[in-house]
Amino acid sequence: MKARRIIWGGLALILLLAGAAYAYLQNQKSVLELGVGYGARVACACRYIGNRPLADCHKDFEPGMEPIRLSEDVAHKTVTASVPLIASRSARYDPVLGCQPEPYKR
To answer: Is residue 97 part of a domain?
Structure first.
């Protein structure tokens, strides 16, 4: 009987923590969208205007942007910044306009 209470208590605690983590991430989603949008534009400028390798572009990020991952599509001159499973934004290089954000897709 005591073991059953411990198991149910542990499961309840796990569900409570998972719910709190989900609520926190939903609350922070707008901040993360802003951060990855900024990261995409900075990395696009670093890569296509500064002609630096993409791996070197993390040096241009502000403190606190370490979770952002970068990828590029060389054929379309697009850089995508993302926090995996949470937020992702892209910026495309245009020879006249520079690096512009891609339209946001929900």
So the answer is: yes
